[in-house]
Every structure is written in C-alpha cells, then in structure tokens.
Specification:
Rossmann fold, 3 domains, 7-stranded parallel beta sheet, 34% helix
Length: 555
C-alpha cells in the first residue's frame, strides 16, 4: 500500500473495491461534496481514515493524464531541420534528425489508405544525401574512395581503358568483390542496384583471361569458351556484352552474345566461325545451344549468374539447373587453379536470391562461397526522392501526363513501369492520342521488334520508355531522372529494382520515383516501405543469408 497525505488525512490506495457513499463524488469530480465530506470527517474524529480507491479508477486517471500529455506533444517526430517524410498532414511529417525508438510504433501516413476517403493523399520520402551510398566514404573504410583500379594489380591496359571511359575510382562493392574473384573464390555478391556489380565481375575475369592469353595456354584453333555470363533478358545480355567488349577491345578477346526468340539457325550462326572467349547468354538460348552441341562448357573457367534473384525464381530455376549440370563447378578454392581446374562460380544480384541454396548445393559446396553483402542491401536509397500518391485508377493517366510534362521541362529520361504487356500497349495508345512521344518495351513483343529499343532510349533518341519489369533488371539507366510506377509493383524486390533505375553510379543526380497507389492490396506494401523509411531499416521479409536446403527424409 502507498500512503498519500490529503490535509490531515492519510489516503491509502488498495486493490479492493469500496462502495461507500464518498466514492461517487470522488469519481465524478464533485469537489464541493468531497470538501464537505472531508470537513465532517476531520471534526468527527482525530484519527486517520483509510480510503481505498478501486484499480479501475486508478487506470482511468492514468489514461486521462496520458491523453493530456499527448495534447502538448502532437508533433513528436518533428525537429528543426530537413524533413525525411513530408505529407499533406504536417502532423505526420518526420524530420531527418528524429530517430524512432526500438519499440516505438511509427504513425503512418498510409495507415488509412484502404479507405476511399484517402484518395488524393500522398507522402514523400525525401533524399537525405546527394551522392549514392556506394560512392560515399563510410566510417571505418579508410581511404578506399580515393583509390584507383591500379590498387588491384590488374593489367595496365585495362586500367587505361577504364580511364579513357572516365571510370577512375572503384565503388565499394568493386573494392570488396574484385580481390576475391582474383584470388579464385566462389563469390556471392549482393549489393544495391547501380553500384557497379557488372564491372566487379567482368574486370577480374577479363584480367585472368588476358594473363592466360599472354602465357599462350591456348591458340585461336584451340579456342574454347572460357567464361559464361547468364542473364534473364536479351536487353541485359546486350548491355553486358557491350561492357565486356568495351574493356577488352584491345586485348584480342572474343565476346559474343546469344539471346532467345531468334530460332536455332540464328544461334548456330553465332558459333559457326569461332568459339568466343566470353559468352553472354539468356538461359533458353544457351540451353538450345547445348542441346544442339553448338557449345561446350567442359573447359569453362568462369560461370557467372547475373540478376540472381530473377535467375533463381520459378521461371528460370529449372533451366539454370540444367545449364549448371553441363559445367564442372569448383567446390573449393584449390579447384580453381592449375591445368585441370574447374569453373569459378560468381553469383550477382541486387537482392539476395532466395532459392540459391537449393540449386547451387547440387553443384558446389555452399560453405566455399564467399559472400559480399553491402550495408545498404534491401534498403531504400537515401539519395533518391520517392513519392507515393493514393489515386483512383481513372485519374492515373492525368497524373502521369502532368509528371511527364514536368520531366520534359527538366530534360529528364523517364521510365514508366506497368505490371502487364497489355497495360503497356494501352498506355502507349493513350499517350499517342495526347501527342506524347515515347517507346514501348514488353516481353510479348517479337524479338526483332524488341531489338534495339532500349539501346535507342539509352542514346537519347526518345526520352520516355513505357515498359514492364523486363527493363527493371540490371539495365544501365544513367540518363533516367524519373521513374513512374504507373502500376504499383507486386513485391519488395520489384520495387527495389525499379527504384534502382535512378541514382546509379555515373549519373548526374539522384533522381526521383513517383508511385501511383490504386488498389487496396497495394497499401500493405506501401505501409511496409513507409515503415522502413521512418525506421531507416531494410525492407522486411527479404533474404539476408544463403539458406541451405533442408535434409528431407522419406518416411
């Protein structure tokens, strides 16, 4: 019991319920009756009187105190300085300088977005830094940001070629990945989009192939494929091939590309004259080449799986497993050196591939793989502004038109993402009627029609590209300043990849992402994104480690 002094009377709080007549005026705040009762009690007796207050009343008083304290603290997340979250309701803003407590639940702008009353509401996650995190020096990293590619002791001609392309300083992921590949490790590299992963694996591979060429370990007549890079789309295959050729143009290495949709005759023509040193391929085309025995992976030294989260999903996993069965993948470091060496495995992605353990455990020892994982993996990029607008489906075309007009004034390249090929086509017709010049790219287009579309966009022949997620995986979009999610993405992974088309290494600015939130089922994902932004944490539900396959025993 706790003793509280009220005048000359000691009041004792206790759990038992008192039903005496003095309880009612006390509960309902009748101070005059209470004072009269106190006076009568003080004159009636000189001894202390015990008053027992019910627990329910104690809890009610505490609740009232809390409610009153909240009235004086309506803006707990606002501090002087820049805003991290800006919304239509200023009370839901959050400052950059405010940090949520570990057990503090954030108040979300998107909390009520499943109701029609929320139409027209919006919030923006502002950019909090100008440079990409993979180009910023982090505490404890030393002077890595000042280093050049000479620090890797690679061929001088490769460094000169990079310098001629104004590629001087390696990114964080390149600093971590290149030395491990040079030493012969099997590597799993998971890092944010636009951080330079393509160069992180191509540079050490081409360096090693050049050393072998100088040692005359093989001649032109004995040439066999030394490195294979498997990617999910023809557009990405063309891009990786372009990068590989640009850095090996003076070395004499042969780089070829083969993609699906062209038929067996076109695939055969690719290998009719000579075998390439480096082959970049899509899974379907490479499987056809293996079945027809146009190529052999028996003497392979490097096997690269790019955009791993896509390559290990259900649409490609079966083909990838069959391709891997044709190669001899090293299970330990000692097997990647010597004359009878096996293929060194490199797996690369912007999100951690969930099914990697199930497939790779069949061809290599997962324990031998070295994991390179960036600090910002699965996080929202802090240098990219991201706006979410709750809008009716019928109003999206008007909002899009306004955004495109603003981007045109600022001379920005724009990617407009849709969830289906039919929406891409419909939206294209609508923009045609509005007189908006654009191009379209979706997976149901014939190969001949798709060829060169993205290349023309990269060259600036057109500023607006309407596309499906086929353009969100790995493609270099340095000239893009605005991403519009006309259809909200269906998963965290899709959102990360789409948003990663802006603010890439080498781009002039951070860029902006505008997302239209139309359906009730979109709101759940928006709330998770907003929560991650307010907490400055990674998106929930994403893989962060290699999951080893479970040992299933038959009963």
């Amino acid at each position: 019991m706790q003793s509280v002094t009220f005048g000359n009377i000691h009041v004792l709080k206790q759990l038992s319920v008192l039903r005496n007549s003095f309880c009612a005026p006390l509960i309902y705040g009748r101070s005059d009756a209470m004072l009269a009762w106190v006076r009568s009690m003080t004159t009636a007796a000189s001894q202390s009187v015990v008053i027992r207050i019910p627990r329910r009343m104690q809890e009610r008083i505490e609740n009232i105190k809390q409610m009153q304290s909240k009235k004086f603290n309506k803006l707990p997340t606002i501090k002087p300085g820049r805003l991290l979250i800006r919304s239509r309701n200023p009370q839901l803003n959050q400052s950059v300088g405010y940090t949520l407590g570990k057990f503090e639940q954030p108040v979300l702008v998107s909390k009520g977005w499943k109701n029609k009353e929320a139409l027209g509401d919006y919030f923006t996650i502002n950019s909090v830094q100008s440079a990409p995190p993979f180009m910023v020096k982090h505490e404890g990293e030393g002077d890595d940001h000042k280093k050049t590619f000479n620090c890797f002791n690679i061929c001088p001609e490769l460094v000169e070629t990079l310098q001629s392309q104004n590629i001087i300083h390696p990114t964080t992921v390149q600093m971590q990945t290149i030395p491990k590949i040079l030493r012969g490790f099997n590597v799993l590299c998971a890092a944010e989009t636009g951080s330079g992963k393509t160069l992180a694996y191509l540079l050490p591979i081409i360096h090693k192939l050049l050393l072998e060429k100088q040692l005359e370990k093989f001649t032109d007549t004995e040439r066999k494929i030394q490195a294979v890079v498997v990617v999910p789309s023809r557009e990405l295959a063309e891009q990786v091939t372009s990068v590989a050729r640009s850095i090996s143009q003076q070395s004499g290495l042969v780089v070829k590309v083969v993609g699906g949709g062209r038929g067996v005759g076109n695939i055969k023509a690719t290998f009719s004259h000579t075998q390439p040193d480096v082959l970049v391929a899509t899974p379907g085309a490479l499987l056809k080449a293996l079945w027809k025995r146009f190529v052999s992976l028996s003497d392979l030294n490097f096997f690269v799986i790019d955009e791993a989260d896509t390559m290990f999903d259900d649409s490609f996993a079966g083909m990838l497993e069959k391709i891997l069965s044709h190669a001899q993948v090293a299970s330990r470091l000692s097997e990647t050196v010597g004359f009878t060496r096996k293929a060194q495995l490199v797996v690369v992605g912007a999100t951690f591939p969930g099914g990697v353990g199930e497939i790779l455990s069949k061809v290599t020892d997962l324990g031998s793989m070295v994991t390179v994982k960036s600090q910002m993996l699965h996080c929202l990029m802090p240098h990219v502004k991201q706006t979410f607008l709750r809008v009716k489906g019928a109003d999206k075309i008007l909002e899009l038109h306004q955004a495109l007009k603003k981007a045109e004034q600022e001379h920005k390249g724009v990617l407009v993402f849709c969830n289906s090929a039919s929406t891409v086509n419909w939206l294209g017709y609508s923009l045609d009627e509005m007189g908006v010049r654009h191009m379209r790219l979706q997976g149901e287009m014939p190969a001949a029609m798709r060829e060169g579309i993205f290349r023309n966009f990269q060259r600036g022949n057109v500023d607006i590209l309407i596309c499906t997620d086929i353009a969100s995986r790995g493609l270099d979009t340095q000239r893009v300043g605005l991403i519009v999610n006309y259809d909200f993405p269906e998963s965290h992974t899709d959102y990360i990849h789409r948003a990663g088309r802006v603010g890439r290494a080498g781009s002039s600015s951070g860029g902006e992402v505008l997302s239209f939130v139309t359906h009730r089922w979109d709101v759940d994902l928006v709330q998770k994104i907003e929560t991650a932004a307010r907490r400055r944490s990674s998106l929930p539900g994403m893989e962060s480690e290699i999951k080893k396959p479970s040992n299933k025993t038959e009963m």
